[in-house]
Amino acid sequence: MIRIGRMPEVTPKRATFGALLILLLFCLITTSIAKSKSNTWDESAHILSGYAYITEGLDYLSPLNHPVTGRSISALIPSLVYDLDFDNTVKPERAPDSNFFPYSLKFLFENSVPGTKILFSARIGSIITGCLLLCFVWLWAYRLWGPTGALLSVLFAALSPNLLAHSALATTDLPITAFFFISTYFLYRLSTGEGGIVTALLAALFITLALTTKHSALFLLPVFGISFLLRLKRSGIKSTLGLYLSVFVVVYLLLWAFYGFRFHSSSPLYVPLDWALFEASAFAPIYDFIRSFKLLPESYLYGVAGVLSGASSGRAAFLMGEYSSNGWWYYFTVAFLIKTPIPALIFFIASVLYLLRERSERTVRALWLFLPALMLFVAISAQNVNIGLRHALPVYPFIFVLIGSVTSIRTESIRLAKRFFVVGVAWYVISAASTFPHQLAYFNEFIGGPDNGYKYLVDSNLDWGQDLPALKEFMVERDIESIKMSYFGFSDPKYYGIKYDYLPSYYMPPTGAVSSEVTLEGWFAISATMLQGVYLPRRDFYKIFKETEPVAVIGHSIFIYKF
Prior knowledge:
two-stranded antiparallel sheet, five-stranded mixed sheet, mainly alpha
């Protein structure tokens, strides 16, 4: 008779030591990525907005889609370490004659400190936040699955191409991922009766951090409601109501505190926000009511309105050779399936199937991981903005904690299970190592890896303007003085020492007269997003290049041709 067994357990001391080594590895990888990549589309705007808020209290420069905390994380270290020049007369986004976005580049690259130093110091904030996230992945997995499961969870999280890529960028995607997950962890603890007032205060702190980092944190409201109902069933109305009311009150007070207890900036240069943008919105009466009684900081409310409006309006997008401005309901499903390492998908499915079959207390607690991730994924898939899997990044920590349960699976074929486990982990580690330092451009073996990624997805899934330093290195190696270039990114390649002749692009500043035709002579550099023509009036403009084998591909995102 075959004996039923399970994976051998690692001792707590060894598991903790292993987790610390993994955390160190995570820091080394993200630091190396942060140093090697050029600024992506959103980074200069985040850094400028955060710096303006930290140093001047200006919360009105670009509040349409982002609150203040996520951007302040990016700007904190630059504001502490460097004495930067800042023109506080910069005109806000959407103001008449706005110069916000051009000035954000000038602030980054034409300052008293080299732009590469400012950019790297800004990215350190995300790296630190990523380390905090890994600590809580370990903590939650340890509570559920023990030291071995926690070690597996933190390994998969630390080597995740998507988490690594965004932990090395000065954007809000990694901070909201961390704060949403940590908030849910403390709400979970409250729901089980494990936590008291200290847990409630920690929940309030991280909920506020999430709410003031990105507006997708509003999906914490149903999580809060479920936590309340479960605690109510367990502990009764008296203790539960007081505990959760304290969370609500502290969140509300902290939100105001993060905005300096001001309805809007007290700066004499304050520019009124354009509320006429939302006159046609079904929520306009609610916005007017909140504003009239000053129930929320104005720029925070303005951002909420902007996100609600933007989610339904959509943007130009590309998926598997198709184009749309309204998106596809299956966009994030496809992106998730081809941008998540296959071993992670297998382990995730195995963990869900096993926990459903087990039907124990562990299964109930695992729902705290599965349901928030599912809710987020469905909600994000329902929106019309399809420009990157990064919008679904907050689902990943929940998945990685669930993966930790694989170590506790009981099976009759324990020897076969061990071999399967070792192969899966080794595959995952090799997959992560082979992509370095191009984690942003990661695609799995389902489509043949990163080399084929541009055929399926572009924009921030692959080509976000990050590979200018590598392009400069290529030009030096090949002794290329100047290159004809079509670049998708919010920067001027000249900041990275690249001399170029302009080809039709999205944002990149022209170097001279713009021609409607391309003379096929010399060296060319075409970004993947431009190659697919997503943001061009003629989407087949670079068709001849798509049909030509490139000489090289820089970081999987910039295609090099010579005619």
